[in-house]
Amino acid sequence: YIQFCRTQGRWGLNTYLYGPKDDLKHRMLWREMYLEEEAVHLKALIQAAHACGLQFIYALSPGQDIIFSNSYDVVLLKRKLRQVAGLGCKAFAILFDDIDHTLCQVDKDVFSSFAHAQVSVANEIFQYLEEPCTFLFCPTEYCNSLCYPCLAKSAYLKTIGEELLPGIGVIWTGTKVISKELTEESIKEVQEVLQRRPLIWDNLHANDYDSKIVFLGPFKGRPIGLGPHLQGLLLNPNCEFEANFIPIHTLGSWFRSIHRMRKHSASASKEESGAYCPEEALSRALQDWTEEIGKSSKGAPDVISNETATVWKPCEIGEDREQETQVLTQLDSASQELEASHETPGLTDLRLLVGLFYLPYEHGDKAQHLLKEFQWLKANSSCISIAVKKGDPQKSRSQVEKKFRVDEWRSRALHFKQECDNLLHLHSRIIKSTNRAFLYDLYPYVWDVRNTTLLAKAFVLWLGCRTIASVDLLGVEVEPWVFKGGISGEFQTNHISNGSLFIPFPLICDVLLLSHSTVGPLLHLSPEYSFILEDDRGLCGYALGVMDVKSFIKNCEATWFPAMREKYPQASYTELFHLFQLQKATYPDSLLYHFPSLVHVEVLPDVLDSSVARCLATCLLLALKVNGSQGVFCEMLPTDQLHLEFFTKLGFLEIFRSDAVHHEDIVLGRLL
Question: Where exactly are the transmembrane stretches of this chain (predicted)?
């Protein structure tokens, strides 16, 4: 983290906003004070930021369940912020984003609207903290697409603009949650409604909504003319520390361009006036990144928080996340060549890497070319199977045309294969990197592209002797999270008609194959959330889940156990429970309210590449999230260090230990 702060200072950025969703006391448990050991860590974070010349903003998100008219809730909010202020924090933010746009009946009796309730609390807290220089407010309508009925006619934002004290800054993300571009006109419109300059919370590089993508491209689509109309700009970066070098570096270039613009008159030359060019900024960042990666790293950098932000008036927003420490064991020992030939990815490698993982609405040149060629080869593959009878004079012309088309198709197919081979070589060079922190953070994404590239290359070779119908694609511009996976996702969408190369399928296993208490019921009662992992030896892992634990327990009692008693009539009811190690656990409503879904992941110990297990678990989590789950939990013994470390790295945190659950298991949970 200190290294990160120093880097920000070197590039002219000055603010760090702390608001990680995996800090339960930031959002879900906002009323609870930090324990002594937690406060020590938070104080160290604040001091490190100040030592590097950064303003530290502490953000709290009480909106999910606060009762605005309840004086006790307001007292708890004040107490929590007073504790953080006592740790040395002087800047604060209250976030009301991503919550229901309604009031409970108690609040309806006191406040005339949702906006008035939020403003009342925000103003009171602002004054209680003695009106700090930086106090931010994130509204529930925080972008144009969320305004009802529109920005100019939003009664909610009109109230915010009129009633919120003038010293409070308002956060805004742009026209969308993830805005492709920000224009001076759109910001002026927001400024007029809010009656103050907005502070942009820029999600351009945020990747927490898609575990299969990372954004390495430059800060782009924000003209430097925005500067005079903004209170500041926070950049919400990738969750992975090492993936943020170019986003933060180019943001620094953008910020410096604003300063140069202010110093020079309009008649100055383009260079003197501070014009910002994303491509030039990217080239400079790539040069510096190449040198940075060339520095051998013995360990991962200190952890940073991921809702943190980077600014020209704020800093960097990232999610607290442990660095991978057990990844790539088998890759390092896969061959004598890898052990003996560690090397540093060069400028060409990094440029290709950035092109593959560019920006939410845009691929780099190389990725665009690959997708275009893949689509062309797929759409024109029928030409190589056209049958023309030899010797037919009436078809001589069509024969020539066919030969030309076939030659063109095969030539482009060969070129596509060579391009795919270059991507495979990139993967090989990346895993030899001496900078292990860089490798650990980016390896899962490079591995995913490698696998997709292998499939795409094999598919094109298959097209060489077969025909396939083309698939029409929708060309609608939507938020990036609608179609996930970056270039890998687009290859998959173009590959087969159902749009996915990775399809879960139900498993029917005999009880003798069961290796854990919940495996049998999960497979039989929740097959749609059953994923398996296979290698050349067969089954080597699985990820199983339940969408609704309450319904699952009822189904177990109604169908699963009666079926088992019928199958094993000699066993007593108690023996059946012991046989399957499944007991009638009573899960607290407080647990199931936030974490209604259950997950279980197992991978054989000889599968050394931990990213494989991580991808398997991610597939399950995404399946549950897409189908409506808001949170998941898992159970394990406190002595099971392997599973504890695995789930912790996936963002799970210990919720409680209780005899109400199985034996002495602990419960880990994660919000989706």
Answer: none
